[in-house]
Protein 1
Amino acid sequence: MPKHAQRRTLLGAVAAAPWWWAAFVGTASAQSSTAGSDALDERVRAAALVRGGLSLDIPVIVETGTSVPIVLFADPSQLRPAVRVTRLGIIAPKNPRPVALDMELGALMSQARIATNIRLGASQSVTGVALLSDGTVWQQSIAVVLTGSACYDGT
């Protein structure tokens, strides 16, 4: 093998190493079962829950719970001046891991809107939660009927 080919292989491996490590660490932390749920539950329990200001868009009847599209949106017109959304969460209480999403939003986030897919293990009431910088918690719940489960193996 020519010397420059070995150098390119080495440089490529070194350049890819941080991305591989970040993906590995991110996967490992995403697999933890209760770390995020305990933190989110404590914040929600300690705050005053307010209905409204939060929009949760999810199908009411779902054929299979393998991949359920969901959009969580905090209405900026409902915010008081100098108050922002600091955290968004989605809770599916009948799943083996009830906290489907727990995301912290930075100060420069212009819009508190999350679109993702979640897994559902059974028919249940899915709740969207938004934690505001003043300690208020907005919530919105929607009952989802499932015709087939996605959480057979307990994950």
Protein 2
Amino acid sequence: MSADESLANELNRFFARFEATSSSANASSANANSASANGTIGAANGACAEPTIEQRPLIITESDVRRVFKRVNTRKAVGPDGICGRVLKACADQLAPVFTDIFNLSLMLGIVPSSFKRSIIVPVPKKP
């Protein structure tokens, strides 16, 4: 197996983790791709196969989200959403169920909300 094929197989395994497992998605990918049985990309056909390794879906629990909200550093600056850490920490019990649903739905559908993809980069000059 060449280095290019190894890299392609590694990328295939990595990105296959994020695919939603729905019957329509599996049926359309099975019809669209004629891939090898072992889940690799071959030089002859160049198609991607479904991963063969059974993986448990990633589930985020409400207690995990609550714990992260309660550990937020309140001295840090606000993010692009404009919500300060003090609010997240104080309202952790009320916000945790809502954010847990958002995170799990995002993982299940394989879609990241566009607001999660934005950031503000602030350059910090070094002292000479």
